[in-house]
Each structure stands twice: as structure tokens, then as C-alpha cells.
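Ticket reopened. Same input as before:
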Amino acid sequence: MSETVNFIVDAALIDRLGRELVSKQETALIELVKNCFDADATNVTVRLDGQGAGAALTIADDGLGMTRDQLVNGFLRLASDAKVREPISPKFQRQRAGRKGIGRFATQRLGSRLRLKTWHDPDMPGQEIFVDWERFTRGERLEEIPLVIFEIAPRGTTGTDLEIERLRDEWSDTQIKRCWRGLLALQRPFPIAPIKNLPTKDPGFTVAFFRGGNLYDSDELVADIQTEILDYAHGIIDLEVDQNGHARWRLSQNYFGPDRDWSRIHHAQGQSRAPEAYEHLHDISMRAYYFVLDRDYIPSIVYTQLRDVLAEDAGIRLYRNGFRVVPYGQRGNDWLRLDERYTQRSVLMPIQNRNFYGFVEVDDPEGGQFEEHTSREGLIENAPFAELRDLVSSTLITAAEIMAAQRGRKTRAGGASKPPAPVSDFVRQIRDAAKEAEEGASQTNNDGVQGTNRPNYAALLNRAGDALEAGNAEIADALAMLRMLATLGLTMAEFSHETGMAFESAKLDATAVFKSAMESSPNDQKLRARAQRAQSMIDRLYALTNYLNEVAAARSARTMAPVSVKGAINEMVKGLTEQALAVKVKIKPELPEYDPLFTVPMHGAEVASILLNFYSNSIKALKEVKVERRILIDAKKEDGNVVFRFSDNGDGIPAEHRPHIFDQFFTTRVAPSTAAPDNEQMRGTGLGLWIVKQIVDRARGSVKLVDPPEGYSTCFEVSLPAEVS
Amino acid sequence: MIRWILIDDMESERATYADHLSAEGSLTIDPINSEDVLSTLRATGDGIDGVLVDVDLSADLGSKHSGPGVAQDIRVAQQDGTLRAFPVVRFSMVGRVAQKIGSDASSDDLFDLKIDKDGLTDDVAQDLVRKKMLGVSGVYAFSRQNKTTIEEWTSLNPDQWAYWGHSDFEAGLRTADRDYLRAREYMNLLSSPGLLINEHLLSIRLGIEMGCKGWQSLIEALQKASFKGVSAAEFPRWWAAGLDDWWFDDIGASVPLSSLTVEERIGTLSEKFGDLSALPPGQGSPGNRPWRYCTLTLERGHGFLPVDPAEGVRMTSRRPPPSWADPQYAAIGPALELRDPRLDPTDLERARRKVEAYK
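Engineering reply: fixed in the latest deploy. New output:
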């Protein structure tokens, strides 16, 4: 005996889809406006009338409306895949925003009753359907709750009205404003070029929000932001990823220096001039306006307004196929980890969310790259999303670093900076203000005339206070950096010594383990290869640790003494040869046999720092060299100076960069993403050669790029005064 | 089975070294910390043949000990007879010695040998350390048999000693009234080049590269001058004066070895021993009549760098060396670079002028 049965759909499913999948009322409203966009509407009005139990929300659009068939088989059909099958809207060819067919249940989330009116033809009668969501209760079968469709008179235009009654939530003014901002943010506040797949015949999409007759009109605010805010940006950062995954960026309208034209970028290949394409990411555009919230760079008349607006609305928003994806770029959302990095003080120039106003546009009509959570609140953090986050943060920081360097501010903790302006400057300003105030008072006393030339005491004090505050911030930054460097130095000296001790015995044990493993399995070639590889790496680490121990020991010596450049070079070569060979670089020292080449008194670690900086640059420059990679270090005494040259056959330094290589923060690398570990953040900061120059200058020597010896492409020459016998 | 104790405050490290330096069947090493070390040693009784001790024991709980402190306590106990005589060897990283001991020579007499922990990863280096440990244990075992004569210790008869030995050493051995003092005196003979020279110094004096093709036959021919005293197997040595006798008597030379250039030395020796290689010139060490090695280079763990005394820089130690020991030298290159305070200022200035002249 057999029996045929069916699934039964409980009416409570409606509640689940509506109230549980869309947690926030703002999100529900956004979903409904998305449907208007998909229906090729050009104008949408959202009206909130009444208060409390009698409150109602009406969303009216001038879109295409629905035929009876579309109403029954589309709107009333759960999980309809019509939008998946037809991802492009029929009239304006828009890429549809809603995909999963649950957006309509947002109406259930917002209120317990829905009245839907729709007109597909301006001259023909429309359809009306009334849904009382309270009838969809647990225990009822969904298909057994009847809904009645009425015919209504033509209204002369097409479109759909959604009247939601018995709202589930109170809508305070603050909520209305938040919702209004959310709706505003659905539309891009400014265009990114090129805007793809949007035919020019599309007149656009605007939303107006009314409450009891008060108008909140989006157009006006957009105009305000454009004219009152964006015009004060200090630079515009554009980013594009083409369909093949190649990313490029540019910096324009740079307030602090020359613009940077389009150049290729990959967050993980910071040093490469021809970075590879992204594996997952493609068809991305970004435009971000960058603001340095500093009174020196923003007219005082708009400073406060700008600061407040940016604090509220700035950030990098994310748009997918023309619609905003929340919560990215909302206040408090730090999807690019900009605030986090800034708070950790690993990046010192302003790179908080409030310093950027912009958006990323993802062109992903097939949904092949990104997938939204069903709750409509964010994207699933898959590989393309991770690449997007890394690329965008890396691009923003790279641009901010360039601008910071151009205005001479330090960019990263750990790097030195120009000394902060002395507090005495600010004290002088206060004294000037006091003097001004005093003169104003005495003039009053002498002349018996009040008020004509009297300074504005409050303004003067405010100015002086601001100056002191700025000075304090500078000093706090410098102190934070010094504290970090001091801690780092002490830790390094202490732990490198302990590491050296442990390493010696660890190497002893590891060597014995490898040896006995190979003896016990003489024919296991894989084991042999592994053991040899591990042994070689341990040897390399051993040599490096020993060298770092010596540098750390020299660093802890506080007194200055003549330094043997020959000794320092020999130690460096001994310590780094193995490491260099691992990346196929041969180091060749050419040193005098007897002359130790003593300099004037210096700190022992300073010469080591110079050599390490050159070495580090050479290794980067040699990375893409296909022939034999070579470093040559030669030294001699010449006219009372110790002269040493550091040469490599790497890819050389382009002529346009040569005048800037010793500048603070000058770097050609791309900043690491905010997700990169701390040690990555500290690399390639554009401080290496600047530090070299500081050391050399202090010793009254010189450092310059000179013609390289034959067979080499880059040569730095350092001349330090020799010790006077 | 020879049994040693390794005293170190770092548990893993001491276990590692004890493990690797032990030799199955001949040498066992027990790693311990320095807490209550004397009680432990006393409880072990006569079962100890030597102690390795790190200079830094500061990580041990409640301990104020340092390596020299432990060594001093052991020597005092050996003096009053509560511990039997056994060797005490300093066993530490070069960097830690520099930090904890520096140029303070006051603890030098406490240790029979000083072995660096650094660079013990290869088998050859480990074997060498093991041999030294077994050798110095042998020296103390011999001393505990109350042997006091030169002949017993050195295997030289009085006539030979009169030519190759030195009365000051003999006096030192005679006046040592404790087993450990006699052993210490003898270890000095083995450790300090002077009356005896090791294979490296032999190579330098002959002007022949150690280990070259004809080297072994040359060593065999030098049998007459080789040292045959206590622990000779563990400390291969040659009598310095014996080498001179061999040079004149067996080779038939008429000019002292030390006054000849490397080319002249190898020229003479090649006639008898065929395939020999000349000692390669040392980097930073000019001159072609090598006779000493550079103390600074050796102390830094960079091996034996030959020095021609006419081109080298003399060094003075903070404590006077035995009268029979060779003077210490540094090669010009390391001397000019390292500026060790033990370097003779006059020699150093002379070296500096020479370097200017080389340019």
C-alpha cells in the first residue's frame, strides 16, 4: 500500500521571512526601495504619516507597475527567481538589485498590514491587493489564507504604491534621519567614471522622504555634500580593477604636491613595478576623497562643519551593481580596519574612516564574485572580498603616505620625523595674544574710548589653545614613537641575546635529529631532502642571529668611539651571506688587507644601520633580476675620509626618483594592507635612506648616488671623516 | 666509565650539551643546576671525574652563584680534602664570558680548561671537546696517585728535560702539595704554548699546511720530538726544543727554523718529504717567517692565524704568564681593528706606520 503526501507550508513562514531575516527597519525600507529601482522607477516618495498605532508608511514609485500575472506569479509567489532569470530591468536596462525574492516581505517586517496598488498601463485599470499579515499565524496553512485582488481606476501613470499600516516600530526623528541617510546612501553621491552598464537614457533614480508634510529631499543634500564638503578634499584617490584582475590607481587634485598618474598596484607585491593580476577580484572601481582634518589645511569657516559631517558620514561605502551594501562605510563600521590601524599607532598619518569619503563600486551582475548575506547586512567574507579589502586599504594608505611625505609628517610609528614645532612657538602666540589684549585695554584706559580696537579675547585664547593642543598632539606622537623605539631596542637587545643562547643548543639537537633520521632511513630521498633543507635554514638563521646579536650589543653601547668600517663590513658579510645566497645574491667585499678604516667617533650600530639599509634596498632591487645577482662592497681611505661604496646589479633607480631618494618618507612601494602583520607595516616606509643620511650628516660625512662600477647598476657612496691619528 | 657533571642554570640547554658530549661506554655527563651544588658533589663522593660549569648561573632559584664562584667553592673543598681532586672546566658562550668575565683574569687559575659552547654542532668539534675532557680527567687521575717527578709526568728523562724543559715548571710541580695543584700545574704545560706546541703551532713553525698530502709522514718523522707524557693521546703535543733538535739533527739544517721564510722551510722539507703544501699567508698578517699565532683571532673563535713576530704586535696579559710560556702576539690586521688594551702600544704604533707604508 502506498500514499502520496506533500510538504505543508505553515503560514508562520511569512513571519520568519519578514521579521527574522530582515532585522532592522531601515534595512527593510531599503529593500523596498530596491524593488522600486528594479521596476525602472525614476522617482520614489516615502511618506510617514501619523504616530503610534495609526502610523502608516507609503512607498510610491513611478515604475513599470505589475500586470495581474506579474502580481500573482511574481509578487505572490514565494522565492520567485524572476530577478535571477532576468537580472536586467526591461526599460532602463538596470542591473537589478534585489535577487532572492524576499524583499517584499520587508513590508511584513515594517507593519502588520499591506495595501499594494499597481498600474501597469496609465490608461487601464490597476490592481489592488490587501494583505493582513496578522492572519498568517502558526498552525494556518499558507495556501489556505485567501487574498483578494480588486480592480481600481486608472491613475494616468504607471507605478506601484505600497501602503504599510500598523507599523511595528516607532519612527523617531532620529530614526527617520538615519533612514533618510540610508536611502540617500543608496544612490552614489558622485559618479565614478566610467559607470558601466547604465545606459544614458536612464534618467536616474531619486528618493524623497516626507513626514507629515515636512520634506527631507535627497537632492538638496547631495548638492550640499558636493559643493560644501567635497570641494575641500585634499586629494582624490581613484582605483580600478579591470575584467582581468589588473588593478591600477591614481592620485589627483593633490593639495600637497604633484599628482600621481595611473600606476599598477597589488597590495601584496608592494615593491613590484609590474604587479600581477588579482586572482579573484575584477571589475571594481573606487573613488575616495581624502581629508586632512587640520586647521592649517582647511578654511576655518568650514572646518567645524566639515569635521562634524565627516565624523558622521565619512567612510568608504560599498556599492554592488549600483546599490549600496550596508553596513560598509556606515558610522562605526571599520571594514577596512583603518580606525584599528590608526588606534594601534602603527600608522601615524591620518587614515581613519573620517579622513575618507568615497565608495567602491562592484560590477558583479552574475553574483560571481560577491554574495550578500540573506539578512541583507553585508557580504560573505570570501576570497574576492578579502582581496577587495586589502587592495582598497593598501591604496588608501599608499596615497595618504605620499601626501603625508609631501607635507613632511611622519607616517608610521618607528620612523623618525621632523621635530615637532617647539612649544615655545605656541607660548609666543599666547603672549602675543595677551599683549594684544593688554594694548586693547590700555587704549581703552588712555583714550576713554571703549570697544573700537579691543581684541576679541575669547578668539585669541581659543587660537592659542588650539595651537597648544596641536603642539601637544605633535609631541604626544613623537613621544609615542620614541617610547616604541626604546621598547623595541631594549627588547631586541635582551631577547636577541637569549635567542642566541637557545639557538646554539637547539641547533645542536636539530643537527643530531636530522643526522639520525637520515641514518635510520638512508634510502628515503624525501626525508633526506627535508633534513638538508631544514639544516640549511637553521644554518642561515644561526648566522643571522649571531649578526643581530652583535648589532644589538653594539646598539647597547652608549658611548661613541671610532668605528672600523672594515670590521663592520666583514661582520655584515659574515652574518648575511647565507641569507643572501638563499635569494641567490652573492656578496663580494673588497677591503684593504690591513687598514681597519676607522671613522671619527660614532655609535657602533650606526655604521651597521647604514649597511643594513643598503643591503635591504639591494635585495629588493635584485628581486626581479634574472641574471646573476651581485652585491659589491668596497672600502678605502681617501683624502682623510673613509669611503665605502655599496653596489648592486638590481633594476636601478629611475632618474625621476633620484632627487628624492634621501627624502623622508620617499618610497616607491605600495603600502601593505591594514590586514598585514605589524612587521610588514613597518617595512618600506621610505625612512631607510633618510636615516642613512641623518647618520652620515651627523658624522659630517656625505652620501650620494655615484656612477656604478662596470657590471653594476646602482652604487651608493658614503664618505665618513676618518679618525685623526 | 668517566663521569662528569655539567652545571648550568638553563635546563634544556644543559640537557642538550650533556647529551651530545656524552660518549657511550667512555664518558657520561650528568646535567645539574647550581643549587646545593657542593652537597650534590659531596654526595657523589669519588664518582666524579670532572665538572663543566657555565659562567652565568643567575637563573637558578635563590642562587647567588656564578661559574667562578662554584669553581672557587670546589677548589676550597679540594684544598681541605672534603672533595677529591677533579678538573673544573669553564664551559660557556664566548659572548657570555665577555659579558660576565671580561678582562678580569682573577678566575683564570680556577679552571683547568676553557671550552666555548659556540660551534659545537659538528662531530669534529664535539670529539675534540670529549678528548679534552677525557684527557684532563686522566691528568687528575694520575695526580691522585701522588706522582711528583718530572719523568713520571712527562716521560722525559732528566737529561732530555735539561734540554727541552724548564726549571720553573719543575719547581712548580714540586711545590704543589695537593693533587689538584699538581694537575693544574701540568694542565698549564699542556695548554700554554711554550715548552710544548700543538699541531697548529707545529704547522706554523714548519711553514707547512696542516693536513696536506705529506703532512702525516712529516708527523711520523717527528716522533722523536713528540710529547709522550700523561694524556698525550688526548693532547697531541710536540716539544718546542725537540723540534729544533730534529731540525738540526735529522734534517741537517744549519740555520734555525725560525729565521727561514716559509719558502725556505718548505724547500728544505720537500727534499725529504716530497708532497708538501706551503702554509698559506694569513689575511691581515704580513711577514713570511711565521712562528706564533694571533691570540686575538683565536679568542674570537676565528682559528689559528700565523704571525711573523717581526711583523706582529706583542700582547701583555693582566697576569704574568709562566716564565717558560711563549709571549703572546696579535697579527697587525686584527690588532689595528680590535684595539685590545693588552696590545703593546709601541708595537701598535709601529704597525700603524707600517700599514701607512703599505699603501
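The two ends of chain B are 59 Å apart (CA to CA). Residues 123-143 of chain B form the longest helix (21 residues). Please confirm and we'll close it.
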